[in-house]
Amino acid sequence: MNYKLSIIISLIVCLTFSCTKKNTYQTNEHGLTYKYIVKSDSTLSPQEGNKLVLDVRYFDSKDSLLFNSQDISPKFIMDFIKPSAEGSTINDALAMMHEGDSMSFLINAYEFYLFAGQTKKLKEISQTENLRFEIKLQKILSPEIVQKEQEKKMEELKNEEEELLKEYIANNYPDLKPTKSGLYFIETREGEGPTVSKNNKVAIHYTATYINGEPIYSTYQKNDPLIFDVADPLVWPCLAESVLYMKKGSKATCIAVSKLAAGENGDKAMHIAPRKTIIFDIELIAFK
Fold first, then answer.
1. Residue 84 has what pLDDT?
2. pTM score of the predicted model
3. Domains in the chain, start-ordered, CATH in brackets?
4. Arithmetic mean of pLDDT, 144-169
């Protein structure tokens, strides 16, 4: 064989072997199967309490995309939980990454769904099937940085809520003054008899909307009035205060800033975001 040709073939073989090795999955001592897509020079790795800014995609054994974090948010953030034992969970995968790394992992689908609490999925897959994860660790955020970002965001939302309320009142009720608590109360129909006291239990119908008119909830839809003790500390302050100005049969509109309604942090159960002013149209059905 020609000497030069022999050298060229040897180089091709070496390069091919090198590239193949680089792109081949490896398994660490804890059973986690992985390979690097991009390996950064950073030495910063996740620690307990950090929040991780990630790009995450995962695929089933047929290479069908099951999840893409970009579909949820361009800034997808997860809490990092240090694995209690070395193994092959998603937290083990994140634990071996450094800021800037892009990696691919093969994780047992059955164990992943079991770990994630998605037990319904367990009936649909075999115990040997793997999911292929592609993860890019964009940024590691310390608790201090996260706290500062949250405070900044809440201040922005506070200013936004105040501006929207100011504009709404100026356009709709320019002469209306708030109560001592900050509630705006407008009686739209006068009832009969005595007014409600703090010792009463009341039944009301209400419709709740955001300040832009977007609907939240209405008790009229299911004919399911809200019944509560006025003195109950768990009742939203705006409702407890509003009924004190009402008689049986009264109707009123109350404009409640977030601290008097779902709270400055919102209400996840009702899907209400932080710092949202809510407008209630209330009808007092009965009290005793």
1. 76
2. 0.62
3. 24-141 (3.10.50.40), 150-287 (3.10.50.40)
4. 92
